[in-house]
Each structure stands twice: as C-alpha cells, then as structure tokens.
C-alpha cells in the first residue's frame, strides 16, 4: 500500500506571533519600489526624438471684417482681413476658402517625454513621426521660429507671383544675395541659414547675386572661403568650403528672388508659420482679381506649398489638416496630389479631398466645385488608385 499522506500541519507556534521578513528582504522590496518610482519618473521626463502632429487652427482667407456690430460666430465677424489687393480692380466674393494648419509638439525647446509620445500614439487623430523629418539635430528654438517665419514670408511672395502669372499679369524677377535654402550635401549647410544675406566673399564686398556668383566660381572646389553675412540685423563672418559636384564651383545655396509687379498684395498673418498656406493664398488672390465668387459660395479648405511657377508642393500633416477642416465645416479640401495616398480611404465623412498638382489645377477644381460640377474633379481616392 502506498504510504498514507501526512495530515496538513500549521506552522509551529514559536510564541512570538507572525514571522517578520528578514532585513535583506525588506531592503530588496524597498529598492524595487524605488526603481519602479524612478522608472515612472524617467518615462515622464525622458526626451524622445519624435514630434506629434494634431489638427491645428483653421482660418478663412476670404473673411471680411465685422460690420455694423457683427457678433462673434457670425460669418466673417471679428475675422482679420488676411488678403488685400491694391493697384488693380477687385471684386466681391462669397463662400469660404480656409487655410489649414497642424499643431506640432516636440520641436526644439518644446521636447516631448516618452509618456507624452505614448499617449499621442494612442490618439487616432495624431501622427507621431521622427523629429528629424522637421528639424535638423542642432536647430535651436530661435532658429526654428525664424525659419518658420521666413518660410511663411516666402510662401506669400510665391503665392502672389503664381496668382498674378496665372492671371496673365507680368511680374519681373531679380535674384538676390539672400539665402532661400542650402543644399544639404554642401559644406555651407553647416553654417548658412535661410534668410542670411551674403555681403562679402573672402573680405571682398559683393553688391548683388551676379558678383557673388562670380566670386565663388573663381575659387577651386573644396577651397576654404570666408563669407560676410547679415543675419537678423547683425553682421557676422563664417568660414566654410566650396564644392564642385558637376565641375563648377558652388556654395550650394538657392538664392531668394525679389519680384516686382503693378499689383500690390498684402497678406497679413502673424500667428502662423511655414509655407503650407501658399496654394490657398494664391487662390484667394485669383478670386479677388476676377469677377464672381471662385467657390460659388461653397466651403473649401486646402493646403500645399506653392512655387512661383505655380507648382503645388507637398507639405506634410495632411490627415490632421483634413480633420481640422471638416471640424470647421468644410466640405471640400484641396491637397497636393503627391500626398493623396496619406488620406485615400480615410477621410472623415462629409468632406471630399481633391488632388492638385498646379495652381491652374486648383483654380479649375474650385471653379468646378463652385459651379456645381464637383463630380468632375479628381479626388484623392482616384489619384491614389490611378
């Protein structure tokens, strides 16, 4: 027979009550608790190299100022006039043409903790992307703000030129010494910033772009060169090297261009940066300079940087901008065709996203929408599928 199972027994009574954990066990528990608290604290403050994009403010670029005591919430009441034209006849319009934005968290000086990024990842209306897609590693908060302001100013100028050209109004152009952007592969990308004005090369003053170009091309590729700059109202000097990717000596800058036309356009906006409103600004100028309402009274929103030749350029944050536009009541949205894949099949109910590649495309699309022919425009779903 198998041995009988011994009966269960209570622990022996020592007469001293419950056994206390040993001092080593207590120390281990205390250390574990401390590590857990420290880990939670670290998650709350540890900077991670990501930015989060969420729907930002929406502004009607056709808004008129409030009149006769208009109340907040009335159509156009209390809105600042964003686009004003002088030097040519303008025409009344109606409907809405909204610029859209994203709220970006995690840039220089506004870094996000790991905990904030994890929360953002859980929000279906927020996109979390590597910070390097928006900022170079050494960019300061001041430099980021200055770049954003410069991009907005550049987008306004390009929008005006594109709009006037679309309408057949002649615009003259002069290339300047101001830096618009720097080729990332060029050594000068380490020292030059958008908005810098190059005033001298190796101590010799250059009065215009032609002199700057000639001075640089006279140097061999890879030569050390001293550049005098005007940056933010201060005169400074930096040292860099030329390069010659195709046998011609370059600094690797894209110079800014100044335009002159008989029509003066003032775009007044101070609280939004970046180039993404360029296409919408250009459409507003076209609308004001042509009879009738371009939108036909419809509520249209959009995004897209624009080149002076009218090319609509991708800008990022499209999904968040569409969400913001729909919240504001827009039923149509213009987007760079190259970004249509980002929103195809995922747009909120009640809004149609249209893909455009040029200002002329955008103008024709809005005219079709305003004329009740919205079924003729190419939606982003169709562009992405085609």
How would you characterize the overall build of this protein?
The protein is α+β, with helices and mostly antiparallel strands. It folds into 2 domains: 50-170 and 262-385, Ribosomal Protein S5, domain 2; 172-257, PDZ domain (Pdz3 Domain, Roll). It has 8 helices and 16 strands. The chain has helices at residues 23-45, 114-122, 141-166, 209-217, 278-288, 318-327, 359-370, 380-385, and strands at 50-60, 83-86, 96-105, 127-130, 172-182, 197-201, 204-205, 224-231, 234-241, 253-260, 264-267, 299-302, 305-306, 312-313, 332-336, 352-356. The chain has a 6-stranded mixed sheet. Helix 3 (141-166) runs parallel beside helix 5 (278-288). The longest helix has 26 residues, at 141-166. It is globular, with a radius of gyration of 30 Å. The protein starts with 22 loop residues before the first helix and ends with a helix. The relative contact order is 0.15.
Q: Which strand order do you get reading across the main beta sheet?
A: 4-1-3-12-15-16
Terminal CA distance reads 82 Å
Which value, in Å, is the CA radius of gyration? 30 Å
- The total count of helices amounts to 8
Q: In CATH terms, what is the fold-level topology of the largest domain?
A: Ribosomal Protein S5, domain 2
Fraction of residues in helix: 25-40%
Q: List how many beta strands DSSP finds.
A: 16
Shape: globular
Largest sheet: 6 strands, mixed
Mean pLDDT value: 82
CATH architecture of the largest domain: 2-Layer Sandwich
CATH top level assignment of the largest domain: Alpha Beta
Low-pLDDT runs = 1-21, 34-46, 65-78
């Amino acid at each position: 027979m198998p041995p009988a199972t011994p009966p269960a027994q209570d622990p022996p009574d020592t007469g001293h009550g419950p056994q206390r954990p040993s001092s080593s066990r207590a120390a281990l528990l205390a250390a574990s608790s401390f590590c857990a608290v420290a880990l939670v604290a670290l998650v709350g403050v540890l900077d991670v190299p990501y930015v989060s994009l969420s729907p930002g403010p929406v502004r009607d670029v056709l808004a008129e100022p409030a009149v006769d005591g208009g109340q907040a919430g009335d159509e156009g009441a209390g809105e600042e006039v964003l686009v004003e034209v002088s030097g040519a006849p303008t025409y009344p319009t109606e409907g809405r043409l909204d610029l859209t934005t994203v709220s970006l968290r995690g840039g220089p000086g506004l870094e996000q903790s790991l905990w904030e990024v994890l929360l953002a990842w859980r929000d279906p209306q927020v996109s979390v992307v590597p910070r390097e897609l928006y900022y170079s590693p050494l960019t300061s908060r001041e430099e980021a703000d200055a770049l954003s302001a410069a991009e907005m100013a550049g987008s306004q100028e390009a929008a005006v030129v594109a709009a006037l050209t679309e309408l057949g109004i002649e615009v003259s152009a002069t290339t300047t010494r101001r830096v618009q952007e720097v080729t990332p592969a060029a050594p000068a990308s380490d020292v030059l910033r958008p908005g810098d004005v190059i005033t001298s090369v190796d101590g010799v003053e250059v009065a215009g772009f032609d002199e700057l170009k000639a001075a640089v091309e006279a140097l061999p590729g890879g030569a050390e060169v001293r550049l005098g700059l005007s940056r933010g109202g201060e005169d400074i000097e930096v040292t860099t090297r030329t390069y010659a990717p195709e046998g011609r000596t370059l600094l690797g800058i894209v110079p800014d261009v100044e335009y002159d036309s008989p029509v003066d356009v003032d775009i007044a906006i101070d609280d939004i940066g970046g180039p993404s409103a360029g296409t919408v600004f250009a459409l507003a100028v076209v609308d004001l300079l042509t009879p009738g309402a371009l939108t036909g009274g419809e509520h249209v929103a959009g995004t897209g940087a624009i080149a002076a030749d009218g090319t609509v350029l991708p800008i990022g944050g499209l999904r968040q901008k569409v969400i913001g536009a729909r919240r504001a009541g827009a039923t149509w949205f213009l987007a760079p065709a190259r970004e249509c894949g980002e929103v195809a099949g995922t747009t909120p109910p009640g809004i149609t996203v249209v893909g455009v590649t040029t200002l002329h495309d955008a103008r024709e699309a809005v005219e079709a929408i305003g004329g009740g022919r919205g079924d003729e425009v190419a939606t982003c779903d169709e562009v992405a599928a085609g």
